[in-house]
Structure formats: structure tokens, C-alpha cells
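Objective 1b. Sequence-to-structure analysis of Carboxylesterase.
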Amino acid sequence: MKHIFEKGRNRNRTLLLLHGTGGDENDLIPLAKHIDADANILSVRGNVLEHGMPRFFKRLAEGVFDEEDLIFRTGELNEFLTKAAEEYSFDRSEMVAVGYSNGANIAGSLLFHYENSLKSAILHHPMVPRRNIDIPSLSGTPIFIGAGMNDPICLPQETHDLADILKAAGGEVVIHWENHGHQLTSSEVEAASAWYNEKLK
């Protein structure tokens, strides 16, 4: 997978950056440096193109995921992360995902499909990856969800549903609400950074 790796001063912690639709591996690097300037950065570009725009998995329509492709691409990403940890000599068990929109959805899918795939996750405007499935234990896994009260893509009920599923699996979930839509605001970034410093530093 196309990616950028930057070695940090803290070799134990790696931030996995997962962009939104139409973004690329450069998008979230400034955000990552704001959250933890000492961590390694592994920023990945999605392998799927939709009208020329990179994504991490296919969709059938706005808000309707291609579940078969989602499952395949989640496995592909999980495999890549294991190989990257070996190649760049970082601890896979200390990986924290930072995802926005489509990137947050594939990060959520990692949590839904692979036990211990992530130490923690910051999910900006995620949706429920899949419904009515058993997901692995997330006991003690801190998860931040950033959401917009007026988000037309990810409605508030979707956010509550995702939080409930993650909590039922043992995840320690915090929801931060913004009175905005689907965009990622500076105040939401600040809230995620403060949460990270409290929970993980």
C-alpha cells in the first residue's frame, strides 16, 4: 500500500493515519504532529479509487458500504500493518489509529474484525462498519469519536449506535460533539488531542 513512514523520537508509539475520501497520505500528518510530536507516523493511502478519488473500500452509494470489499480491504490493511511493523521496527501493539470519514470507517472495521489490531483509535465522523455481527473484545481500548450534530452523512443516531456497539465489546468510548456538519474542525482536533494526552501519554 502507498504510505509514508516517519520515525519519531518515541519508538514505542505509532500513529496510523487514515484519510477521508479523495484525500491521500499527506492529509493528516500535520494533525498527527499536533497530537503527538514524538510518535512514529504511518500514513496510508487507500487502495480503491472512486471517480479518481482514493478510498479505503468501495461503497454502493452514499453511506452504503460494499461489505464484501470492506471485509477484504480491512484484511489487506491489517496484513500491511503487520508487515510495516516488521519493516520499520515498531511495536504493532502500540499503534493508535487516527482516521477521518472513510479512514475512520476502515479503522472502525479493524476494531470490528481483528482483536488487538489497534491499541486505541481516534475516529472523526465514523459510521458503523457492519451491523449484527459479533466483534472481538475491546476491553480497555480507549476510543474517541468526533461527531457533528448536523452531519448529513453520519447522523447522530449512527454515532450513538457505533458507540453502543464498541462499549458492548468493552471499549472505553468518549463522544465529542460539534455543532457542525461532516467537516473536521480545529476545535474537534483540539478535543481529540486533549483526550489523547489524558488517556495515552
